[in-house]
Amino acid sequence: MERFITLLSFLTRIPVKTSGKLDEEFHKSAKYFSLVGIVLGIFYLIFGVATSKIFGAHIGALVFISTNIILTGGLHLDGLGDTFDGLYSYRDKDRILEIMKDSRLGTNALLAILILILFKIALADKFISQGYYYGLFFMPVMGKMASVLACYKGKTAKKNGMGNAFIGKVSAIDFYIALGIGILAMVLPSILIKDYSIAIINVTVVIIVIILTLDYMNHVYKIIDGLTGDILGAICELAEVVYLFMYYLGVTLWQLFI
Q: Required cofactors, per record (predicted)?
């Protein structure tokens, strides 16, 4: 439990009591990544849906995504921005890593963050207005599942960095525990309410996101031959928005043809 609390403090801004010390085996807490996603999903859903009941779906979607940003401290968005500034500057590896360390916001970062937030708000609006609350809850779970996959399959691009606490150190058992927790959270509601469409759509989307995550990792390897903490943040954000898009598409197609 102590490792989970420390991980929650590490990945979010949720106020929890922890020593704050990261020991040499902190990577073993990776098994709880999906559990962190579940906790975040609960908060996002409570604030977003509650607000939508008073002010409507548009404001509810804005509050949902604002809660997402606030509770993660913008950590993953910062990683997304740094990743797009660095990787798509088309420089050599050392220069790319220098750019990613630079705290200044470049054009690529600004555009990537802006476009992603707009997509998230638009999709959250659709989910809230049509009552697809499960998808909103599962969004951060998918993000954390993609992150732990990258940590498990990935290798580091540099000697030091926050991401090195996990990248290349996550064991197979810890990865599959995290994956199992995430998938269980995604299919359990289907079993409880006996609506198996949710489980089928979710499992399909998880497979798609896993494939896309591995493909993006290979793309990154061709540029800097490894991953950084910033890239983990980018993977988390991209997985979340892809999940929302694919889940909505899945529900729409299910209603049309099945």
A: Mg(2+)
